[in-house]
Amino acid sequence: MEELDNKGIECYVAVNENQEQVKEDQHGITFEYNEQKNHYRCSRGQLLRPQYGIKRDNRRGTEAQTYKGINCQPCPVKSICTTSEKARTVYRYSNQKWRDCYRSKMKSDLGSTKLRLRKALSEHPFGTLKYWMGYIPILLPGKQKVQIEMDIYTIAYNFKRMLNMTSFDQLKELIEKKRMSAVVA
Q1: Span 158-184, pLDDT tens digits
Q2: Do residues 67 and 39 touch, judged by C-beta distance below 8 A?
Q3: Where in 58-173 does DSSP place strands (E)?
Q4: What three-state secondary structure class fits 32?
Q5: Percent helix, strand, coil in the chain (nearest 5)?
Q6: Nearby residues of 14 by Cβ (< 8 Å), 6 or more positions away
Q7: Exposure string (b/e) for 150-181, b if CB count within 10 Å is 16 or more?
């Protein structure tokens, strides 16, 4: 998504939040980053300082700096905040500024509207195809054959949609016009 954003393409894809993030939001647990001092401070006032080394995920192509809490033991929300015996860990990704901007963009009114529209327009065909196919029983092995199978399902879906929008006679007439223009050209 960041690559699309850098090319000037507006992208509206839902941000996945795991159960821990939802639980933190419910209990008001937040972490603020201080760029000048290079540390985080939690909503309870505890510091999280950078640890040695960078965490890399080669599969996803991400890098993150690890920040660990200094004095989490006496915190009253420690059991909600972390399962670690020692302290809370927070990761700051190399593109964290972009991630934060994107998250706030998606929480805006425009982001919510775009997501609702996306769910109504583009998610519906996938649900319908899954239902027709019995939740994706791909029968043929290999990438090319799977693509052919998906193309057939997509054509069937589009054909059925066209029949719902026009009568069969109108559709037959359109096909005949296209066929005749292809023969002339």
Answers
A1: 888 888 888 888 888 888 888 888 777
A2: yes
A3: 62-69, 89-93
A4: strand
A5: 50, 15, 30
A6: 106, 115
A7: eeebeeeeeeeeeeeeeeeeeeeeeeeeeeee
